[in-house]
Every structure is written in structure tokens, then in C-alpha cells.
Amino acid sequence: MLRTDVADDLRRAFEADGYLFPDYEGYCFANVPHTVAAALGVETGRTLPDDALAGVSDEFERVLVVLVDGLGFRQWRRERDRHPLLDRLSTVGRVTPLTSVYPSETAAAMTTFHTGALPVEHGVVGWNVYEPTTDEAFEALPFQTKDGDEPAVSRSEVADADPLYPELADAGVSSHHVVPFDETTAGATTRVYESLDEFPVTVAETVADAADPAYCFAYLDHVDAAAHESGTESADYRETVGEVFDALDAVVSKLDAEGTADETLLVVTADHGHVNTDPERNVNLDRREDLLAALRRRDDGTPVKFAGSMRNGHLHLRDDSPENAAEVAADLRADLDARVFERAEILDGDASGGDRFDGHLFGDAPASETFRRRLGDAVVSHRDLGVWWGNEEPGELAYVGMHGGLHPDEMLVPFAAVRADELVE
């Protein structure tokens, strides 16, 4: 069942002037890890509403979560008729739309996925993080500075939160990751696949070898990369979606061949979708001399630029004028079709949104000290364009598909659940 009614309700309740805000208390990606843990008998935090799994078989020993980075709910609906597995998932399974977290980008959302903590708690405010204690900007997921060096902070200090997997292990649940990069996550074993051709075998073997009860996680980044390069309307994007779901279809077949399909709950979800921007109109902040003059300076005198992302820009401003943030925010609102949130309203939970949005943009929990020091004095989220420092990183503004902001196309993601044997033809 493809639950388009839930998508409609989320938009009615949490959308304001074309910006869709997170439903942290209910249908939110942040609640997926706790829902998976609860399905395996471990209570770790707030779960999705019960109807997300209503009618889904509860007779399984393993949960396999396949996360298709960048696949929004809108694209799921559009591509359904083009791929048999997508159609079967939408017919036999239960597909519930969720809002992403804010920011709707991989570094923040995947930190939430692996820790169960909200961005306001773990402090990963975007792909780029400015850490005042070390006076350094670094990219959170590649864990490198803008120069490609190792940051002064340790890996354990990137996020102010611990992985959920040791807690699951203490409760007797084994955790296993299948990813296309070297990764070490406390409490989980890791298997690396080198290509999409290897993906089905690696996933099926991981599920078969796992000690019950087991939580298996598999990550696919191909759709996200295609959307960045050419947008979600391109032939390359649609071909990539097809290739990814061909691989996932092969996973289902191999689970069936190995006799584990009827013991496996399959969940297919995404961390965010994409909004198609216009590279010719994406906004180069380096052209705004007034803004450059207002930025905080690092110890070497250079301005603090790189914080957040093109759809979630954090501006760290000089503190020698109490009016600085308000003036900068007002100027940007006047010139750009964008929401500009000031630090005070974010910390006070006063960010305006839809009828049921409670104002807590980065999460409805107390702000950690890590989050407080990394949060910009103003946060810019354009309606449908990228906003970034184009002189130094021109490639970022050349992307077509982007995410991180509050456009419905990037904020709504699928949560599909079905026991794997029900997908076998």
C-alpha cells in the first residue's frame, strides 16, 4: 500500500509557504532506528506511529534495512510503474512517507540513523562543520578538512552521540553493515562491496551469516550521486534508480534461494530526497561583499565560510555588533527567496512552520553544547536554489539535484516495510 494520504496530511500540517518542516514526534526519519530496534524487541527511543507497520508480518528473526541515499517519496511514486520491485513493494508492502530531519542531508540524517539522536543533540549541523574549539572547518562524513587533511577533532568528537549498536548487542541483537566504503561503527560488523554487481551477494551472505536476532543495514549511494549530477528528471537518474532496484530485486531472490526470506523483515527507506535547482541561478555568496565583511574571522584572519551546505547555510558572524545577525538576516530575506532563521529563534524553538510544527527546527530535544557552538548565527534555506561560496567551491553550485533544505521534494522520503518472502514472484 502506497500511503499517499499520509503525504497529503504531512503537507497540510507541516508545510508553510512551500517549506515542509519535520514531524519529529511522528512520521520522521529520526524515528526509524528506534522503530527497527523495537521490532527486534529492544526499546531505544521514540518510534514511528504504529500504523507504519500495521499489517506487516511480525514473524521474522532479522531486519534488513536498505537505505537508498537521495530517493525521495515523489520519485518513488513516479518510478513505481517503471520497475517491478518498486511496484511490488508499493502493492504488497506498506510504504509510508516520512519527513526527513533538518537539515535534510546525509551527514546529519545518517548520524541520527546510527545514533538515534537528533541533530540538535549530536551537533552534526551539515556536511560542513565549523568547530570553534579548534577554529577549523571539516567535512563530517569524509572526515577531512577542506584541504583534505585529518581534522584536529577526533572521529569520536564529530558527533556528540554514541551509536545504538552496542546497546543492541547488550540486548542480544547482532548488527551488521554492508557499505561501499571502509567503515567502523562501534557494535556492528562491516562488509564492503566494491560494485553494484557485488551488492546482492554481499547482502544475502551477511543476512544468512548473522546470528539471530539480527539487524542488517545496507547502504546505496548511487541515486544520490546521479541526482546531484543531472537532477531527478534526467535519463541518467531514472536509469540509476532502475539499476539500484534491479540489485535489490536480486537481493530478494538470493534471500529466497538461501531460505532466509521468510525470516527477514525488509525495510527500504531514504535519508532525504532532492530538489532540482538551476546551476545558472544558484546563488554565489562570494559576490556579497557586505556579507563577507560581516563574517567571523578565524585566527589567521580568513572568514569562516564553510558550515552547513548549499541548502542549509550556517553563517558565523562577527560578535562586535549585537545587531549583526538581525541585519544580515533581514538583508538576505530581502534579496533571496529563502527562509533565514536566526540563532535565537532556533535555540528558543521559535522557528515558524506548519500548524503542527513545534518550532524546533533541528529537533525537539535540549540542545547540546556541541550543537550550540556549531550552530550559525543565521541559517539560510532557499526555496529551490543552492546558496554557497562559489568562488572557492564552484562545483557545489554546478549541481542540479540538491538537498539539505525544506522543499517537499527533499523532505519527504519513503519507509517501505514487508517480509521479504512476500516479494518473491
UniProtKB/TrEMBL annotation:
Residue intervals passing through the bilayer: none
What this protein is called in its record is: Alkaline phosphatase family protein
The record's section on Pfam families has: Phosphodiest
Organism this protein belongs to = Halorussus gelatinilyticus
From what superkingdom does this record's organism come?
Archaea
What InterPro entries does the record tag this protein with?
Alkaline_phosphatase_core_sf (IPR017850), Phosphodiest/P_Trfase (IPR002591)
Q: Name one GO molecular function term.
A: hydrolase activity
